[in-house]
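Help wanted!
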Amino acid sequence: MLDVRNLTRPGLHPVTLNLGVGDCAAITGPSGAGKSLLLRAIADLDPSEGVVALEGTDRMAMSAPAWRRQVMYVPAESGWWASRVGAHFADRDAAAGFLGRFDLPADALDWEVSRLSTGERQRLALIRALALAPRVLLLDEPTSGLDKEATARVESLLHEHLATGAAILLVTHDERQAARLSPRGYRIEAGTLTEVEDWSHGAGRNA
Amino acid sequence: MTYIALDHWDLAIAAGLLVINAGLSIAYGLGLERKLAFAALRMVVQLTLVGLVLKALFAIHSPWLTGLAAMVMVMFAGREAIARQERQFSGLWSYGIGTGSMCVAAMLVTTFAVLTQFEGIAWYEPRIAIPLLGMILGNTMNGVSLGLDRLLATATAERAGIEARLMLGHEARDAMNGAMRQAMRAGMIPTINAMAATGLVALPGMMTGQILAGVEPEEAVKYQLLVMFLIGGGTGLGVFAAVMLGSRRLIDGRDRLRLDRLRAID
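Answered by r_m:
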């Protein structure tokens, strides 16, 4: 579904990978290795070279906003531009449907952003993206601010999202999470991405 | 009332006030005395030279020379405007955007004034065009400088919020909307405040000068009003142009926020 061929930018050696329908691939690696650079390049948030296509359509064939609505990047720390949570959601009803499933109360949309905890911000940012039903999610450390229970809940929701036919490219420092969510793994070091050959035996066994 | 010419001694006595300031600065260790002296010296030299240049311009009365003087003024204003900014576009972009928008706004408003307000004189009449351009340019420069500075500062400070909108598929011009509005307000508010306070809090320098030079107050007021309207118009146009051009430069054709096009000035 998502085809990345020879994608490169400063700090990143050419990357080739693809994701099928319902597919999840995990990327692990030390900080500063280029994980976020790669996700930002796929989302076309920074200039990059190479081919990135969704279901055979090159990203250059559509406007960048149209591309990003379908291939959506969610950073570890998302930004907020209005003072109330609700103002960040185009469709409040769609958002409200997700709140309970993320252990957030129904009035969370009326909260002030400045009072959110790290974990609340992280879950609300994920809902903000999920409510728009993108085809591909590019997740950067989606549970870094969450406790064990909340992490499990987010993971099961991501499994559900995959079951609807979406795809996820997941950056995580947590190899067990990578193994739980993804049958395939990549490692990135000093800007070079390599597929982990014995993923199911190595990282997967620790799960 | 008659016009009373000032001699050099009058000015020297007035300059003595700055010596008191410098003394205070030394006494309290403010470290401003050198800056004060340098700025005052610069002012004296610059104004004296300008007086000579204006005298020559008025005597020669050539459209080419008037145009050349106007260009030089705009270029100095452009340099002055970017020198005050904490953040700038790399390359010549800051200078180009600042100078370009000031140039267009100030020239437009000055030409407009000369053509509509002073009938029966040539557009290049230096005795009218140059002082008007100077007044408008000085204020437009302030507005453009404040507006651009705020635009770049806000875009940098609110990068996360702007990029969050881009990530969700918003168009860059929507994502930049908040920063642009803040920048336009920042550029316009000094002019609006100046209009509101004029006459109550402060008597404008131009009007005061005219009255001191013997012009009837009502006539001086009319000229002041004209100048304030022109300043307001020029500043508004200049700020608008600078903020629009600046935000264009901050985003690219793929709706990305391009803070890499800035360089920080310390």
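OP: Thanks! One thing I noticed: Strands of chain A lie at 2-9, 12-19, 24-28, 49-54, 57-58, 71-74, 136-140, 167-171, 184-189, 192-195.
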